[in-house]
Amino acid sequence: MLYLGFLLCIIVRMSTSHPILQKIAQRIKGARSARKWSIRELAERSGVSPRFLTTLESGGGNISVVRLSDVCDALGIALHEIFAPDPDLSRGVVALVGLKGAGKSTLGKALAAQQNIPYSELDELIEEEAGMSLGEVFSLHGESYYRRMELEALQNYLSRNERGVLSTGGGIVTHGESWELLTDQCVTVWLHASPEEHMERVLQQGDQRPVKGRTNAMDELRLLLQSRERLYRKAHIHVSTSHRPPTESVTELVREVQAMAG
To answer: What confidence score (pLDDT) does residue 2 get?
Structure first.
């Protein structure tokens, strides 16, 4: 923290061409775009003028620490996240996260086909490791055993694959060790949609479990999304799949991944 404080103190003295200012611009613009806010909306929430925010997002705004903190607070991100190192893309693994119904399988398979790289689903790898179905894993051993198998399957996958697209379970963000491993070694992508679309897609897949015996299924889903949103937002890339065809979401996903790699 002392180093971060020292780093922040010298920002105001840097020239507008400094790489740190470019990183600030990229992170702020990315966070704002993920929330689908306009420059004016962020200005109203942060108290920083639209004109200066425009300059900031272009990489030319030499912002003070206090004002940067105001912008981060408005976006709901920690100040230190702005200066976190870029993910290591040398492995070339794109990991998709999000609740069931977000489009992970559909977009994951399309992205893998487009990039000519293998596609895998972590739950299937867990079944292979455990030698039983997920239903049996949960009924016989419980969630804690599943989480241990999830971490083991993830470690084995990353040790064997230098490139690929990996679709993960919706709750992996709640398991600190697995989530940390993903964010350290993969490009993590949060796919998200409205609660109504999540539910509709799951039911269209023939899975009645979310509503079976639950009169408040939609309320429960909204609470689940709300409780995990803070964790999902730590993914490197955010892509909305709401009210758009899969091809459009894949195009955005490819563009964002290539931007990070470039």
So the answer is: 46
Residue ranges per domain, the chain?
A: 2-83, 93-261
pTM of the model: 0.64
- Give the burial string for 28-57 (b: 16+ CB within 10 Å, else e): bbbbbebeebebeebbebbebeeeebebbb
The hierarchical CATH code for the domain 2-83 is 1.10.260.40
Q: Helices in the chain by DSSP H: which ranges?
A: 2-9, 19-34, 39-46, 50-57, 65-75, 104-115, 122-130, 134-141, 143-160, 176-185, 195-204, 217-232, 246-261
Distance CA 82, CA 78 (A): 7
Fold match between domain 2-83 and domain 93-261:
no
pLDDT of amino acid 168: 95
Q: 92 exposed, middle or buried (CB, 10 Å; 0-12, 13-18, 19+)?
A: middle
Architecture of domain 93-261: 3-Layer(aba) Sandwich (3.40)
**Sites in the chain below the pLDDT cut of 70:** 1-17, 34, 85-91, 202, 204-215, 260-262
The CA–CA distances, whole Å, from 209 to 38, 193, 214, 256 equal 38, 19, 9, 34
